[in-house]
Specification:
Length: 261
């Protein structure tokens, strides 16, 4: 007679690399992370070297990129519960790709401006938070519950490698092609991410929607849930603090490195 724990141990021995949809998910997300490292380096360099941006102007570009996630993160999570997560991810990728593609196009025509970089940063930030909220909630639909912890550890490890590789690639592309054309590397990464997501075949798990529930009601329920759980509350505060510190760093590094004393 088989024991119920047999299925659990069997699932624990299953290699995640045998999950085709997980591989597609991981490939797309890693490409996007690597590409984002390119644009996060190339855009400040472009603003400082090509457009003679002041410290305040570079700060505004960074602020415009961080504002949409701060305003839309809760709404993006609620929308991911209501609608297709894959469609939300693909839409975010394509919108980001289109916004970034306008940068080298405008530079080639001699029409690039700081105002455009601010708009691009805002659009990319809004599209990115929609994509990320859906991507996080899609993972439990792709792998067995017993594999969630292993999946997250592999995702974290690969994302760290992808971010480092993307930064090195950004430096090489900026030196070889210039900062404007280097942004095309991030455009390509978004297209790879959208293509990989579109090829995921696993059926999504959807939550039944109550017709009387409004979006702000669901957001309030989520906030109360996080507030009651001390672990989630601590993680939220840590992530928010880290994001704020990284935003300050991204604002200042280009100015310290590129502007003569």
């Amino acid at each position: 007679m088989s024991c119920p724990c047999d299925s659990v141990s069997s699932a624990g021995r299953t290699s995640l690399w045998q999950h085709r949809d997980f591989r597609r998910y991981l490939t797309g997300q890693a490409a996007s992370v690597a590409g984002s490292s390119i644009s996060s380096m190339a855009l400040p360099v472009l603003a400082v070297l090509e457009l003679d941006a002041s410290p305040a102007q570079v700060a505004w570009i960074t602020f415009m990129g961080q504002l949409p996630p701060a305003l839309l993160a809760l709404h993006a999570g609620a929308l991911a519960d209501r609608h297709s997560k894959r469609k939300q991810m693909i839409t975010g990728d394509l919108v980001s790709a289109a916004a970034l593609a306008s940068v080298p196009a405008a530079a080639a025509l001699g029409r690039l401006s700081l105002a455009q970089l601010m708009v691009v940063a805002a659009v990319q930030g809004a599209a990115g938070v929609l994509h990320d909220a859906a991507a996080i909630s899609l993972l439990p639909s792709l792998v067995d519950r017993s594999l969630i912890q292993r999946s997250n550890s592999r995702i974290g490890a690969l994302f760290a490698v992808a971010a480092t590789a993307g930064s090195n690639l950004a430096a090489a592309l900026t030196a070889l092609l210039g900062p404007a054309r280097a942004v095309l590397g991030d455009v390509g990464s978004y297209l790879v991410s959208a293509w990989c997501t579109a090829r995921i075949q696993t059926r999504e798990t959807t939550r039944a929607r109550a017709g009387s529930h409004r979006l702000h009601t669901e957001i309030g329920e989520g906030l109360r849930y996080v507030r009651r759980d001390h672990r989630l509350r601590t993680l939220t505060l840590v992530n928010a603090t880290t994001s704020a510190a990284l935003a300050l760093q991204n604002t200042l590094w280009a100015l310290y490195l590129l502007v003569p004393a």
